[in-house]
Design a protein that fits this description.
2 domains; Arc Repressor Mutant, subunit A; 8 helices; 11 strands; 219 residues; alpha+beta; Jelly Rolls
């Protein structure tokens, strides 16, 4: 599919604005593990995912990671161009969780069109609100949910994304997603294993009992 069919407000742009975007548009193919954007000083531009999977995360002062949201096919990332909005300084790192093909709209081009076009400005505001809702949801999870519930929820989400109960994922990767320590996650997973909810092997977590995980998540 073409960029025009992916960009949500393409039909609201005039010919000059469309040509401006297409003339500056960058197509990138990145390998799993590639850091695409690194903090507010790195004004990458707007990212539109054609295929693949990206992860946006923040770093604590101690260097611990926590995932704030993920991006899938047809998702757009605005925080990678936060430099175009003076009131937002968001230290987000974005990396590819899978091999990904994406488009990059340079920030200066998008900012100009956003200032000219009410539909683009409205779409941008809606996208910003959605991402901040993701962040607020994450804060609520951290503040009010115990780690065992968060781990259970993460495993179920991962199984849904990958469409398999055999997850090729390390304990450290889970810790990075949840803002925890690998040792803590390992102890939690071993507890899950003792309760016959999962089976652990090197680099793999296999879900054995989805219903038990769902009950724990919702308890």
């Amino acid at each position: 599919m073409s960029f025009e069919s992916f960009f949500p407000v393409w039909d609201k742009l005039n010919t000059i604005q469309r040509n401006r975007i297409l003339s500056g548009l960058i197509t990138r193919q990145v390998k799993k593990g590639t850091v695409i954007h690194n903090g507010s000083m790195d004004c990458t531009g707007l990212l539109l995912v054609k295929s693949g999977q990206l992860r946006a995360y923040i770093l604590s002062e101690e260097g611990r990671e926590i995932t704030i949201y993920r991006l899938f096919d047809m998702d757009m990332c605005l925080f990678s161009a936060s430099c175009m909005m003076r009131s937002i300084q968001f230290e987000v790192t974005i990396e590819a969780e899978k091999d990904t093909e994406l488009w990059v709209i340079p920030a200066e081009i998008y900012k100009t069109i956003m200032e000219e076009s009410a539909p683009v400005a409205n779409y941008t505001n809606e996208l910003m609100a959605t991402r901040f809702s993701d962040v607020m949801w994450l804060i609520e999870q951290i503040m009010w949910k115990s780690l065992d519930k968060r781990v259970a929820a993460f495993l179920l989400e991962e199984a849904s994304i990958e469409e398999t109960n055999e997850l090729k994922i390390t304990h450290e990767t889970i810790a990075n997603h949840l803002g925890s320590h690998r040792e803590v996650i390992t102890r939690m997973l071993r507890y899950f294993q003792s309760e016959d909810m999962v089976k652990l092997s090197r680099g793999t977590v296999t879900i054995l009992d989805e219903k038990k995980l769902e009950a724990l998540q919702d308890a």
